[in-house]
Amino acid sequence: MNPITIKKLSLSCALAAFAVLAFGSAAAGARLTTAFVRGLEAALLFGGLSWSLVSWLLPKRLDPVTPPPSRKGGDVDETA
Fold it and tell me: How far is CA 57 from the centre of its chain?
């Protein structure tokens, strides 16, 4: 998993947390500014948590898999 995928995953988690908390607070009767601030706090908390957790669990560098060298004509009988 490359760093761009990790950032996309964290951003989607942050946006989901913001949407749930901000709209849930507004629907429960909180003022819009309070709901917005709660949503920002949730986005920072859960986005940062998911980013740090995924970055910590995945290895820093993955070695690319190289295929074994092909032997062109290696199986052909050359006695003819």
Answer: 12
Range(s) of the domain holding residue 9 = 3-57
> Is residue 50 domain-resident?
yes
CB 6 within 8 A of CB 51: yes
**The tokens 């032997």 sit on which residue?**
71
Q: How far apart are CA 52 and CA 42, in angstroms?
A: 15
**Number of domains observed in the structure of the chain:** 1
Alpha-carbon 31 to chain mean position: 32
**Dihedral, 10, 12, 13, 19 alpha carbons, nearest 10:** 140
In this prediction the pTM is 0.67
Query: Averaged over 64-78, what is the pLDDT?
Result: 64
Question: Per residue in 45-68, pLDDT tens?
Answer: 999 999 898 888 876 665 566 666
